[in-house]
């Protein structure tokens, strides 16, 4: 007979999921009620309002998709891309490539703007792509590239799109709640994210928002949206105003309790305070790693505080280091993806995992492990450097 599953207690400092707040876990255990229950609908209205706060938008078409971040990505593309549409897609890591895949699957023409992994999207290249191509409908880019830890200038890129009469689709899976994000102020037209990064929530929900211009483009589609589940004209009937709800799907009730609680916590902390907290603990982690002799992939001015791609010391078996950290310290850090596999570790400082205790645990565990394996690092300096950064 199969026994109940009891997972080990880990400290999650990889690229996601991140540690979930105990308050959020407790919220998931509350009694399940119907997804059309008046009390659940009241909670849905609160989720929508708090999500507008998190995104910094008042757009009515702001809601959580009942599926992980990849579904949020697909919701943006499937509603806005029609056969033959030209879409400039910026790729400087794994997730720009997924944008390209979405454009092509829905019949669009992907015009690629490529930058080295670890570098931000180059606005000059985007401007040149618009100049070389007429009738571009959309510009798509990743704000915070999870595969590299680099931040691109979303405000500037959205301005370039507006200057050329194009809409924007922006991936904010890793930035929402961890770095400055101003959807309305920057003029983002379609944005998607995930709950499992800086929002201290389990995976499985994808926050999205569409601007008025994006809604108008959806309403003017000449072809039927090729996804029934993600068709925003249908979903809006369920996430509409007040109690006028049309059944669309059975929402993940308890997961939405969790998301609600995570947004309550974000409101309590304050957006700007959350951004500052992620930067504070990144500064301490950076000081400790550099004192150890470990450098970063991304230049400091473009570096994500919540996702740190750090260079692996020469001659080190990086997979063995990760295995030992998990076995000896219950600590998870991430491997490199794609072109960066075997070259970097990805250390996350996201949401509830972004705290001083975890920074010091990570530095001491990594130093002890690397020293035991004979790596060429400086020992005995990392913790003091981190503490100095805090003071």
Automatic annotation (TrEMBL):
Q: Does the keyword Transferase apply?
A: yes
Q: Which UniProt keywords apply?
A: Aminotransferase, Pyridoxal phosphate, Transferase
Task: State the superkingdom.
Answer: Bacteria
Tell me its cofactors: pyridoxal 5'-phosphate
Q: Where are the transmembrane segments?
A: none
Residues annotated as binding substrate: 346
Q: Which GO terms describe its biological process?
A: glycine biosynthetic process, by transamination of glyoxylate
InterPro entries reported for this sequence: Aminotrans_V_dom, Aminotrans_V_PyrdxlP_BS, PyrdxlP-dep_Trfase, PyrdxlP-dep_Trfase_major, PyrdxlP-dep_Trfase_small, SP_NH2Trfase/AEP_transaminase
Q: Which residues does this entry mark as bearing N6-(pyridoxal phosphate)lysine?
A: 197
List the CDD domains.
AGAT_like (cd06451)
- Location of the Aminotransferase class V domain: 32-336
Do the record's keywords include Transferase?
A: yes
GO terms of molecular function: alanine-glyoxylate transaminase activity; L-serine-pyruvate transaminase activity
Q: Which residues form a coiled coil?
A: none
One Pfam short name? Aminotran_5
Name the PANTHER family on file: ALANINE--GLYOXYLATE AMINOTRANSFERASE (PTHR21152:SF40), AMINOTRANSFERASE CLASS V (PTHR21152)
Q: What family does the Swiss-Prot or TrEMBL record give for this protein?
A: Belongs to the class-V pyridoxal-phosphate-dependent aminotransferase family.
What is the name of this protein?
Answer: Alanine--glyoxylate aminotransferase family protein
Q: Which organism is it from?
A: Amphritea balenae
């Amino acid at each position: 007979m199969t026994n109940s599953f009891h997972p080990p207690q880990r400290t999650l400092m990889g690229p996601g999921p991140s540690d979930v707040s105990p308050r959020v876990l407790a919220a998931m255990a509350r009694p399940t009620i119907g997804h059309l229950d008046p009390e659940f609908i009241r909670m849905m209205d609160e989720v929508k309002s708090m999500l507008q706060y998190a995104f910094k938008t008042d757009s009515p078409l702001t809601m959580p998709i009942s599926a992980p971040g990849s579904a949020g990505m697909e919701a943006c593309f499937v509603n806005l891309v029609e056969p033959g549409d030209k879409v400039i897609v910026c790729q400087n890591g794994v997730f720009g490539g997924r944008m390209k895949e979405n454009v092509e699957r829905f019949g669009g023409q992907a015009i690629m703007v490529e930058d080295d992994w670890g570098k931000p999207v180059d606005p000059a290249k985007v401007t040149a792509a618009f100049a070389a191509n007429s009738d571009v409908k959309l510009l798509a880019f990743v704000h915070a590239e999870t595969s590299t830890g680099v931040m691109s200038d979303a405000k500037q890129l959205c301005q370039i799109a507006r200057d050329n009469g194009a809409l924007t689709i922006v991936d904010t899976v890793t930035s929402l709640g961890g770095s400055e994000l101003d959807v309305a102020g920057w003029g983002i037209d379609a944005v998607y994210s995930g709950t499992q990064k800086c929002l201290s929530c389990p995976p499985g929900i994808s926050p999205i928002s569409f601007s008025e211009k994006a809604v108008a483009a959806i309403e003017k589609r000449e072809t039927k949206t090729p996804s029934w589940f993600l068709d925003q004209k249908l979903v809006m009937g369920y996430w509409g105003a007040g109690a006028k709800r049309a059944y669309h799907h059975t929402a993940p009730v308890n997961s939405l309790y969790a998301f609600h609680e995570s947004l309550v916590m974000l409101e309590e902390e304050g957006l700007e305070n959350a951004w500052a907290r992620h930067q504070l603990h990144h500064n301490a982690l950076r000081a400790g790693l550099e004192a150890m002799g470990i450098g970063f992939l991304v230049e400091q001015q473009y570096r994500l505080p919540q996702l740190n791609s750090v260079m692996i010391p020469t001659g080190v078996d990086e997979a063995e280091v990760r295995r030992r950290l998990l076995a000896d310290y219950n600590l998870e850090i991430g491997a490199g993806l794609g072109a960066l596999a075997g070259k970097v570790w990805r250390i996350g400082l996201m949401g509830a995992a972004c705290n001083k205790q975890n920074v010091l645990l990570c530095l001491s565990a990594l130093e002890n492990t690397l020293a035991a394996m004979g790596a060429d690092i400086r020992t005995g300096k990392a913790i003091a450097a981190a503490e100095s950064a805090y003071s």
